[in-house]
Design brief:
By secondary structure, the chain is mainly α. The protein has one domain. The protein has a two-stranded antiparallel ribbon. The longest helix has 11 residues. The protein starts with 22 loop residues before the first strand and ends with a helix.
Length: 101
């Protein structure tokens, strides 16, 4: 069965999903880690480490982000310590929507 064409052209595609998700990819753009979602809480100790190293108010004023386990720097610190093999495989870090697009 052939489906009817609904549009003749797509000009733009936008993605808005998986807020604060993190995914590591290799040099070819292939996923080498699972998606670490917004509700990921394993980086809670790394939040304390970020607070010891940086002024959270200054970072918030500059970036709009507060230190939180869903914050990429906290997740990356956790991955580097607890999942070092996965961390080393990744060449770039993306959100899931960036990867999907």
């Amino acid at each position: 069965m052939r489906l009817p064409m609904l549009v003749s052209r797509v000009d733009y595609v936008a993605g808005s999903c998986f807020w604060h998700s993190l995914l590591g990819v290799d040099d070819e753009g292939n996923a080498v880690t699972p998606v670490f979602g917004w509700a990921e809480r394993r980086a809670a100790n790394e939040v304390l480490e970020l607070r010891a190293k940086f002024d959270e108010r200054e970072v918030h004023a500059r970036t709009g982000c507060r230190f939180h386990p869903s914050y990429w720097p906290a997740k990356l610190l956790w991955l580097k310590k607890e999942r070092a093999e996965l961390f080393r495989k990744a060449r770039r870090w993306l959100s899931f929507s960036d990867y999907f697009l």
